[in-house]
Amino acid sequence: MTGAQLPPWPYPRWIAHRGAGKLAPENTLAAFRLGARHGYRMFECDAKLSRDGVLFLLHDATLSRTTNGHGPAGERSLGELAQLDAGGWHSRAYAGEGIPTLQALARYCLANGYHLNVEIKPNPGQEEATGRAVGALLARIWPASAIPPFLTSFKTAALEGARASAPQLPRGLLLDKLADGAADLQTAVDLGCQAMVLNHALWDAALVARVHGAGLRALSYTVNDEWAAERLIALGTDGIITDRVDLFSPAAA
Questions:
Q1: Domains of the chain (ranges plus CATH)?
Q2: CA proximity to 73, closest of 112, 124, 114
Q3: Higher per-residue confidence, 179 vs 155
Q4: Neighbour tally for 74: CB within 10 Å
Q5: How many CB atoms lie within 10 A of CB 157?
Q6: Which sequence positions are flagged as catalytic?
Q7: Distances, alpha carbon 85 to alpha carbons 67, 69, 70, 229, in Å
Q8: What is the pLDDT of residues 5-33, one digit of tens each?
Q9: 77: DSSP letter
């Protein structure tokens, strides 16, 4: 399969990491609004389950880095999470910003015609359950007529869960390193993925050709330098996740 024969890919090249990169508190609605003001139309977020089974946005397993809470995030109920400040750590301007639910972000994106990349970021031991929950929620609220959300994870069990609950939603395998390029690609194919999303330094022309040849798209994270973006565009990759929403203009791609 050549690049010209790849299945259609309806997403923008540029994807804002956790809403607006480092310009606003990550994974908050304020960050997604700021990313939108910079012209971005696709956003990456991290989703995990609360103690009472509600999907919310947070990257870390614990609360201390990005909220005024402490301890494992998955041990808190949604009501407890809603009382935390998820903005004050970043700057005084965002003090009081709350932790959003995935449903709230999805509805914001739907209302504004934005695209969404949900990284399934499970609490330890909840990989398959979190994938199932993400798939089920988004399949329920996302109209079939709209471009679907793109689901990714480093955890194969999470992708298997998402496929079980929402096989129609596209998925991507995240990798920080390659154990074996052919084996990693086969894992993505076996999981029914539509893309591989790699640490940007891992891509070279041969790997892009191999991934495209298997009918998958090639995406990269987290790209914050112009030279790296130029290299990836020249290689023919399909998507770039960036913190630098102030540096890269998605309208230019």
A1: 3-62+100-246 (3.20.20.190)
A2: 124
A3: 155
A4: 21
A5: 18
A6: 17, 59
A7: 5, 8, 12, 34
A8: 899 999 999 999 999 999 999 999 999 99
A9: -
